[in-house]
Amino acid sequence: MNMLTISPINAFSDNYIWLIRRGNRGFVVDPGEPGPVLTALNADGIELAGILVTHHHFDHTGAVAALKDETGCAVWGPPDSPAGPYDHTVAEGDTVSVLGVAFSVLNVPGHTLDHIAYYSPAEQALFCGDTLFVGGCGRVFEGTPPQMRASLEKLSRLPADTLIFCAHEYTLANLRFARLVEPENTELANFLSACERKREQNEPTVPSQISDELSCNPFLRWQSPEILKTLEAAGRLIDDSPDGIFTAVREWKNTA
Ligand code: ZN
Ligand code: FE
Fold first, then answer.
1. DSSP SS3 for 163
2. What is the pLDDT of the chain when averaged over all its residues?
3. Residue 238 has what pLDDT?
4. Active-site residue set
5. Cα-based torsion angle of the residue sequence 230, 234, 238, 239 in order, rounded to the nearest 10 degrees
6. What is the assigned CATH class of domain 5-255?
7. Model's pTM, two decimal places?
8. Residue 233 C-alpha to ligand 1 middle, in angstroms?
């Protein structure tokens, strides 16, 4: 049985700040804006006990100082982070107790070099910031495409029913691009329809599960013969290694 309740707080135009609750205590993940977080906390009388940071970008850390001032909560985040230092520096192999539930830290560089993710086997929950998105992945700003691919592969090996709490609602654009590179994938077509129905109702498409990503996300599907074929036909294939395929798909998405 799950101990934690996880719900989204909308921020900016398409960010999700995840609110983790147990009774009247809470954590937030990647707070970019203080206002929506304070409104959510006040609405339910929740005391903020901690903040988890996945990476230094402003839309994930912009509210850390204000929330800490307001509530006195502690902050966990990666080392060597341009937005740090944080109260608690954590990296691969470390564990964070979130309201009594253990989350292990995974290093997932690529989008930024300081990027980490938080994973709880008991809650089947992964907070992965801007590394893995529903149907897509973050842009490779600071690392290299092979580094990003290795980070995504690490996440893809988590149990199939793991829930992916990513930090943006980019799903429809991602899955429409995925259709372009893998048009015959019927699971993808069905998943896109299901996500479109959710967005029509103004519901989040996040979280998905690792199993959805393995069957639909072109950034995890470097084994797909159809993606190889599409890249080749588009004159975009660099080489047919996993890194070559990932890099070609990432470059295509950057300009699509
Ligand atoms: Zn980012
Ligand atoms: Fe972001």
1. strand
2. 98
3. 86
4. 55, 57, 59-60, 111, 130, 168
5. 30
6. alpha beta
7. 0.98
8. 32
